[in-house]
Design brief:
The protein is an all-beta fold. About 0% of the residues lie in helices and about 45% in strands. The chain has two domains: about 35 residues, no CATH class; about 140 residues, Jelly Rolls.
């Protein structure tokens, strides 16, 4: 018997049943539970898994940056995680972020990827708190009042992915003026 699962790291269970045509034997069933292990890929030290801490990682392109988060990002009510860009001085006494061109994807298995945020493709990211901002240009200034905790982009994965758990994250830069500046990833449930 082989245990296959789409949601790494979480128990998968099922029932195996044996029928019988022999009148003096009883059919039987038993349950099987297994856990599929996630191969951890730590994020660069400058990316905090939790609250932003003002240290940040500058994404160069190519290649994409892939790492795991623990616990996994999961589907659920409301926003599911926060992507924090580097907190910046916008000038004139205003603060927020200078949002860089970036694509954020998640995966349950490090093979099938779902794009949950794509700043720079020209399509509104309606699953985020930035749906009303445009045009999607490099270093687009977004004031802290429009962000979560001053520099956070709230992301709801539910409209995009099947229900489940997603431990893998992939960030791809678009080689704009500078690379995306990733401060932290905060899981919300």
């Amino acid at each position: 018997m082989t245990c296959n699962a789409n949601s790494s790291g979480y128990p998968v269970s099922g029932t195996v049943s044996f029928g019988n045509n022999d009148s003096d034997e009883t059919p039987f069933s038993f349950s099987v539970t297994c856990t599929v292990n996630v191969v951890p890929i730590p994020p660069p030290p400058a990316i905090n898994i939790g609250n932003p801490d003002t240290t940040f990682y500058t994404l160069v392109c190519p290649p994409p940056l892939v790492f795991t988060v623990s616990p996994s990002i999961s589907t659920g009510s409301g926003y599911d995680f926060v992507y924090y860009e580097r907190y910046a001085d916008l000038g004139g006494g205003n603060y927020g972020i200078l949002l860089d061109l970036v694509k954020v994807e998640i995966s349950a298995d490090n093979s099938t990827w779902y794009t949950v945020f794509n700043w720079g493709d020209g399509s509104p990211d309606t699953n985020t708190n930035l749906a009303g901002f445009s045009p999607e240009t490099d270093n687009y200034p977004i004031p802290e009042a429009s962000l979560f905790n001053g520099s956070g982009i709230l992301i709801n994965i539910d409209p995009i992915v099947p229900p489940g758990y997603y431990p893998y994250m992939r960030f791809t830069g678009d080689c704009g003026v500078d690379g995306a500046e990733i401060d932290a990833i905060e899981l919300l449930h």
